[in-house]
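Researcher: I'd like a structural prediction for the single chain below. Treat it as a standalone chain; there are no partners to consider.
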Amino acid sequence: MEKVRISIVGLGWIAQVVHLPILKKFPEAEIVAICDRDKGRARLVAEKFGIKKYYTDFDLLLKNEECDAVIVCTSTDAHKDIAIPALKAGKDVLVEKPIARHYAEAVAMTDVAKEHKRKLMVE
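Model: Treating it as a single chain, here is the predicted structure.
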């Protein structure tokens, strides 16, 4: 069985307590990289969960990593700025709720997902 390669952006509570521990249990999932603006946090979380690559720049992650999906665990004001480039790069995207600050941001994300035939999910 082929593994789904996942990158996680934003390493706050929800990423560390929910997403990372659960994903590490699934043999079908591989966390290929993580990203956070705080380099110290990114390094510590990578060490804690045995993740080989970590970034502080999401654009570098998208350029350098082969992943199938991106989980967005940032603050709501950054969801659109992470989700849209990921969708355009051919990644499926899971965004923590709320999806956006207002309707126009949510529509922009869904339009890009449709245009690039990618999945956009909200948890």
